[in-house]
Specification:
By secondary structure, this protein is α+β, with helices and mostly antiparallel strands. It is built from 8 helices and 10 strands. The two termini are 25 Å apart.
């Protein structure tokens, strides 16, 4: 049995400890319905028992390599539970996460241009950014980029590119901005809409961070060109692009 199957079975066997209050009754150990494809980091499965359904995420063993802090994710998810904007967490383990299954449609970059979705997302992010997270340091984007860069050779990333990345990250870190809970992977696939509202999933890269970064990831250069913050957002946009490319490079 490989690691994924071993951890999945461990997750299923922990069902007695799942916090299912407010959901369908769970009377027996769930069974795997299907693997849910789409994410690049972990293995995720839809499981069910009668009318009860949940999602089991088998965590990637490469958390440190990818810049993931599982304990920080756990804390952020717990803080955001009252907002109703994230799936209900049923159980958290070092190797897996069990959460409520949110049935609905993922957004697309095309649907993000819809004024209704734009308004709903802006309201959701405003709620999330209003949640306080005390006793935690904001992300230092220079250090974060260097965590990736230190894993790569000069053949992969030239010294010139390294200098450009570090210059942009220093500029962002040196600016005066109020740290907020930032998803850091706010792509349309991580936003689900149904008749209950809007839900944001996959919080493993979340941390206290720049209040504009989640918007930049969603709206790209259009958001970065806002006149009121243009110079500041241009540096942040470069850092976002760098983190995306470095994240991919460390996995090659």
């Amino acid at each position: 049995m490989n690691r994924t199957q071993t951890v999945l079975q461990l997750a299923l066997s922990s069902w007695h400890d799942w916090n299912t209050s407010g959901l369908e009754a769970l009377a027996a150990e769930p069974e795997v319905v299907s693997e849910l494809f789409g994410g690049r980091t972990n293995k995720t499965f839809l499981v069910s028992s009668g009318d009860f359904r949940a999602v089991v995420r088998v965590n990637s063993p490469d958390a440190v390599k990818l810049g993931i802090d599982r304990q920080r994710e756990k804390r952020i998810l717990q803080l955001l539970q009252p907002t109703g904007l994230v799936p209900k967490v049923l159980f958290i383990h070092d190797d897996f996460l069990v959460s409520e299954f949110i049935e609905g449609s993922s957004l697309t970059y095309k649907s993000l241009k819809n004024s209704h979705f734009m308004g709903s997302l802006s309201e959701a992010l405003a709620v999330i950014q209003s949640v306080k997270m005390a006793d935690d340091s904001p992300r230092n984007y220079l250090d974060y980029c260097r965590q990736y860069l230190n894993q790569l050779s000069e053949v992969t990333v030239s010294p010139v590119v390294v200098e450009q990345i570090e210059e942009a990250a220093r500029a962002v870190d040196g600016e005066a901005w109020e740290p907020v809970i930032c998803h850091h992977d706010m792509v349309p696939e991580n936003i689900i809409v149904n008749d209950r509202g809007l839900f944001i999933i996959d919080w493993e890269y979340a941390a206290l961070g720049h209040p504009g970064l989640d918007f930049l990831r969603l709206y790209g250069a259009d958001y970065a060109s806002l006149d009121s913050q243009k110079e500041s957002l241009q540096s942040l946009f470069k850092v976002k692009q760098a983190m995306d490319k470095l994240w991919l490079a460390v996995q090659l």
